[in-house]
């Protein structure tokens, strides 16, 4: 099939690779503009743009796709059979959605109608779900409400963080899309049951702050869900300390108040949490520094038994 592809981050790349490997023709790629990234705020291209350049594929980077008439003209010239959308990052107008004969398909990282929105993977982990999934659905003008073509259930592994789960799901979604395209003319669209809808809104920066009054299991879900963005963090002596990884622990620990460090060893930093539970911090990122093991951080003397995190 002739395809116009919309996508931006690395999670879109398995689908692009899958489409090419299956013999589909990528006529045009639409991706986000270059954006400042990293500590130096260097202008950085999205992963999909790099892919397009490496494979000699034509691409556009509209600042606002809904206001850029040149994009619509370019898509018309490309004459696609279908549009494929994976984590593009902008709302696509109806004039583009319904243009190709097979319209536009989106890969969404949840079992719709659950977790409609920008952060389905993060909210599934945060809510303690044991399973999530991938949905192939037809885009409409309403967010994540279009009819479904295919779904696949994906288990959430016990210590999996959002980045790991999303990466795994990107490959599962790519394979599911390729199988869907093979039989697209025979598939009957299934309308979503909107009464069962739940939502996964974009995460805000301050949501990552840890409340040590919460049980360790809840804190563990936050650390895994907020990995990458916005990052789970606490404060130590007025400085932000990002918690990269850890796990909730079971067993006898000294009596302490929530947020108090109760033990230090080579495994990491043990912190008292709500309901007399304990969380083991294994890896941290101090403000302005690189990631390191919690044990290495503790050797610097900034944290000791009795220190209060908050």
From TrEMBL:
It catalyses: L-methionyl-tRNA(fMet) + (6R)-10-formyltetrahydrofolate = N-formyl-L-methionyl-tRNA(fMet) + (6S)-5,6,7,8-tetrahydrofolate + H(+). Residues 1-181 form the Formyl transferase N-terminal domain. Pfam families: Formyl_trans_C, Formyl_trans_N. Residues 202-297 form the Formyl transferase C-terminal domain. One of its GO terms (molecular function) is methionyl-tRNA formyltransferase activity. The keyword Repeat does not apply. Attaches a formyl group to the free amino group of methionyl-tRNA(fMet). The formyl group appears to play a dual role in the initiator identity of N-formylmethionyl-tRNA by promoting its recognition by IF2 and preventing the misappropriation of this tRNA by the elongation apparatus. This is Methionyl-tRNA formyltransferase. It comes from Candidatus Saccharicenans subterraneus. The gene is fmt. Coiled coil: none annotated.
């Amino acid at each position: 099939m002739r395809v116009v592809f919309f996508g931006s981050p690395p999670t879109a790349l398995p689908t692009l690779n899958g489409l090419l490997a299956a013999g589909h023709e990528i006529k045009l790629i639409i991706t986000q503009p270059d954006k400042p990234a990293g500590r130096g705020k260097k202008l950085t291209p999205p992963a999909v743009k790099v892919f397009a350049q490496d494979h000699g594929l034509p691409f556009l980077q509209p600042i606002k796709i809904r206001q850029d008439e040149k994009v619509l003209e370019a898509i018309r010239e490309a004459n696609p059979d279908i549009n494929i959308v994976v984590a593009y990052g902008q709302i696509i107008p109806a004039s583009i959605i319904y243009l190709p004969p097979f319209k536009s398909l989106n890969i969404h990282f949840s079992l719709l109608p659950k977790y409609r929105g920008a952060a389905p993977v993060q909210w599934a982990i945060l809510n303690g779900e044991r399973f999530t999934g991938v949905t192939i659905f037809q885009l409409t003008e309403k967010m994540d409400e279009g009819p479904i073509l295919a779904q696949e259930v994906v288990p959430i592994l016990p210590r999996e963080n959002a980045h790991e789960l999303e990466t795994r799901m990107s490959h599962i979604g790519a394979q599911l899309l390729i199988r869907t395209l093979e039989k697209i003319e025979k598939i009957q669209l299934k309308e979503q049951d909107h009464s069962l809808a739940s939502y996964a809104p974009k995460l805000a920066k301050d949501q990552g702050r840890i409340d040590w009054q919460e049980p360790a299991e809840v804190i563990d879900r936050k650390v895994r869900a907020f990995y990458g963005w916005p990052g789970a963090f606490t404060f130590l002596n007025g400085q932000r300390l990002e918690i990269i990884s850890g796990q909730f622990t079971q067993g006898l620990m000294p009596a302490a108040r929530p947020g108090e460090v109760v033990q230090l060893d080579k495994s990491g930093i043990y912190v008292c949490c709500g309901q007399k539970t304990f969380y083991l911090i294994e890896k941290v990122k101090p403000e302005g520094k690189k990631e390191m093991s919690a044990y290495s951080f503790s050797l610097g003397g900034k944290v000791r038994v009795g220190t209060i995190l908050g």
